């Protein structure tokens, strides 16, 4: 009898819970702009800043920034919380009200939802003259985030190694790139290209960020929202993915891609065991550090644009990294905004990181000296239609910024899975076109 | 239930008998034991003891499961504060997309591996149930892998299978170093991963079997030996029937385990190169493509499949009462 009542009790609880599961929801009415205070001395409070840079939290760099900040804003206390799995954790925390005062906007948040989570920072019309990348967080004419920094798309390579192989000029076409890689491999014995297949992300964002580098068009990424054949003949994605396929197919990448390791690949590139990797300009500083640690010359690390020329000139897309935003539930919006403004304008963070500042007025960083010297056109990627592109991408389950579809491409190229590149492109086009029908509307 | 209640009422033994005796002295017509049994508080005692585990169980198992079932009827993306009720749309989508179920083919590798695993565990359990030198050491060695965290195992074996890694160097000692990319193609990768799972879970099956075998009374072996039964005959007619329920349990665990493989392939390959299992696919739907609703429906369907398989299995091979004596 006791047993029966127990199971009955459990059943009732479960049923009740299933019915009550529909909590959450509701949007706070905070529509006020998070404006910087007019008088720095007047603003006070403790703000919490969420960051993915656990390394900078641990080595005290961020604390030093906060101390600098306090010279101007003495009554604001800044606390940092470094989160290793930033995307996964913050996404879940955003189901509550407590996700810090200042945070980096997770990629999973749909653009249309920004006004529900973040306080607006100002009108895009007036902000875009001062800041780069404002259209990435522009919803209905208002900007919700300011980029921590931006990066230029391109290949990190070991200059000394390429020189040893007798190559001094940047390859200007995918064909030239393949020939050069082969020469490097033959003459130096190094792995010409390293895919970082196992870690996955080096196959996703760096390659997808090259959309626009190929066509030299800042709106190339937006155009994906209205095409039903993104991998059609001559498109950016077709050129990019064909190049990756050819590199792997011609045996110019690492022998066993399934057991690669990102951390050790940095040292291998610095030591000249690997000749090149497509990354972003953010990687240059890390590679130079790795070179220093390995006892090599940091200046051997070079950066070259994606091997395609348009009208005789190289192009490189400039994309925004994480954007800082103010939590709409924050009780200290002024202090939070003051931190973002100070961090962007005065901290010197982007220059230290060797990245492109979010401020239009700031000069290009030293890491991109080769690009500015050789007159590479910087194309700031337009993000006007990113929301639609992402919606289609998710509906199609392709994942332009996820490793899976390029891991399959690499598997096809090395013969681990059966199929041809042409059929794969046809299939991707078909999935994209179908998803556009359902998600685009 | 009666067993727990016997030992339940606090405080310690001497105080308890005192209390009962005193109360018994006051109303001398009722036997001391009956009075406490009929006391209303006494019926509450087991519930008081159950309160904490039940609260934990409900908070961490039933509430999330209830939520998941609810999400499976919505189009929630996992972040947005808004979600709308879409009825059975997610389930309809699952049924109309047979390619989502193709990943179950990968489970066959793990199913085959669990057959190997059960056989190996049974073999070692039988062997070590007899008097053997260093048997406790061997028991420890066999059980040890199960104690290691799954994530750690993933990383250890990543180095193991690496080009020029442990496996390759061991093989080259025997002159067989072919430089094979173990995780390089779907067949080899799935076999390697299934091998890792055998390595990890044999210990658990082994301990279950060993415990069951040791509960078989020793006289029976003596009797069997007197009758001239060989070791194989002892195994076939004494041990196997004696531990049948445990074997049945292991088979159920093996089947449900191979349908829901996750940790090892997710850490080692991330589901690349044809190693994607149903759970990895579900996780990707939820956290890469923000289709939390659809992914919840996948999870519910997996639960139903496992329940159905277990039910069929119980129908086909009902548990017989073990009766050795």
TrEMBL record, chain A:
Keywords, comma-separated and alphabetical: Cell membrane, Lipoprotein, Membrane, Palmitate, Signal
Which region is the signal sequence? 1-20
List the InterPro entries: Bact_solute-bd_prot1, SBP
Question: What Pfam families does the record tag this protein with?
Answer: SBP_bac_1
Source superkingdom: Bacteria
Q: What is this protein called?
A: Sugar ABC transporter substrate-binding protein
Q: Which organism is it from?
A: Streptomyces bungoensis
Automatic annotation (TrEMBL), chain B:
Q: Where are the transmembrane segments?
A: 44-63, 108-130, 142-161, 192-213, 246-268, 293-312
Q: Which GO terms describe its biological process?
A: transmembrane transport
User: What's the protein here called?
Assistant: ABC transporter permease
Query: What protein family does this chain belong to?
Result: Belongs to the binding-protein-dependent transport system permease family.
Subcellular location(s) per record: Cell membrane
GO cellular component terms, semicolon-separated = plasma membrane
Q: What is its main location?
A: membrane
Question: Could you tell me the keywords of this UniProt record?
Answer: Cell membrane, Membrane, Transmembrane, Transmembrane helix, Transport
Instruction: Classify the protein's membrane topology as the record does.
Output: Multi-pass membrane protein
Where does this protein come from, organism-wise?
A: Streptomyces bungoensis
List, as start-end ranges, the regions of compositional bias called Basic residues: 22-35
Q: Which residues form the ABC transmembrane type-1 domain?
A: 103-313
CDD domains on file: TM_PBP2
One short Pfam name that applies is: BPD_transp_1
Going by the entry's taxonomy, the superkingdom of the source organism is recorded as Bacteria
Please list where the region (Disordered) is annotated. Answer: 1-35
Q: Kindly give the Gene3D superfamilies that the UniProt entry links to this protein.
A: MetI-like
